[in-house]
């Protein structure tokens, strides 16, 4: 049962991964609380946040896990990935390096997570279009080759954040039903 006493039909664990400062914590803040902060502190303490939503008349509790500054390569432990049925793999469209690191994150994800995990590649910070360093087409092509969903978001302007989570959660829902 949820916080408001409502019946919960499903709990889906989704993990956020990607380099430091790409906006993972702000994407989560936007989705879970509809908040955004420009001087977001490195996440400490809180391991996950939840939001309950309705998908095809069932109530689904999304339990979204956020890394607490463990973004160094291989510092994210297998406990983080355990039981995850979805993953948002985030890079910053203004920082080419964060996109170049995506294959590493994918490799780590595939090594630790369930093989049927639903993965969405996310290019964040589209509000900074004038500083774009990663063409949309490059990411789209990469995602297509690897069978990932793909969206560009702005946690700041709340663009596509809801869509990204809903796509992943609905896909998971369809797999278990
Ligand atoms: P994390 O290390 O991946 O969790 O990144 P944070 O969520 O802490 O964000 C890092 C910095 O980028 C913070 O200063 C955020 O305010 C900023 N940021 C996050 N999302 C966006 C966005 O969509 N647009 C812009 N302009 N800045 C963002
Ligand atoms: Mg963070």
Automatic annotation (TrEMBL):
<keyword id="KW-0636">Prenylation</keyword>
<protein>
    <recommendedName>
        <fullName>Ras-related protein Rab11D</fullName>
    </recommendedName>
</protein>
<keyword id="KW-0472">Membrane</keyword>
<keyword id="KW-0449">Lipoprotein</keyword>
<dbReference type="GO" id="GO:0005525">
    <property type="term" value="F:GTP binding"/>
</dbReference>
<dbReference type="GO" id="GO:0005886">
    <property type="term" value="C:plasma membrane"/>
</dbReference>
<keyword id="KW-0342">GTP-binding</keyword>
<keyword id="KW-0547">Nucleotide-binding</keyword>
<comment type="similarity">
    <text>Belongs to the small GTPase superfamily. Rab family.</text>
</comment>
């Amino acid at each position: 049962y949820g916080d408001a006493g409502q019946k919960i039909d499903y709990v889906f664990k989704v993990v956020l991964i990607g380099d430091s400062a790409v906006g993972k914590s702000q994407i989560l803040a936007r989705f879970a609380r509809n908040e955004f902060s420009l001087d977001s502190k490195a996440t400490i303490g809180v391991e996950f946040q939840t939001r309950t939503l309705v998908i095809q008349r069932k109530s689904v509790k999304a339990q979204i896990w956020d890394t607490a500054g463990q973004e160094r390569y291989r510092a994210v432990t297998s406990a983080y990935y355990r039981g995850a049925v979805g993953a948002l793999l985030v890079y910053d469209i203004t920082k080419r390096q964060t996109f170049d690191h995506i294959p590493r994150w994918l490799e780590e994800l595939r090594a630790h997570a369930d093989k049927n995990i639903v993965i969405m590649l996310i290019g964040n910070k589209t509000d900074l279009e004038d500083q774009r360093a990663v063409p949309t087409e490059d990411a789209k092509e990469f995602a297509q080759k690897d069978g990932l969903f793909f969206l560009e978001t702005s946690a700041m302007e709340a663009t596509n954040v809801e869509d990204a989570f809903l796509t992943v959660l609905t896909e998971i829902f369809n797999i278990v039903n």
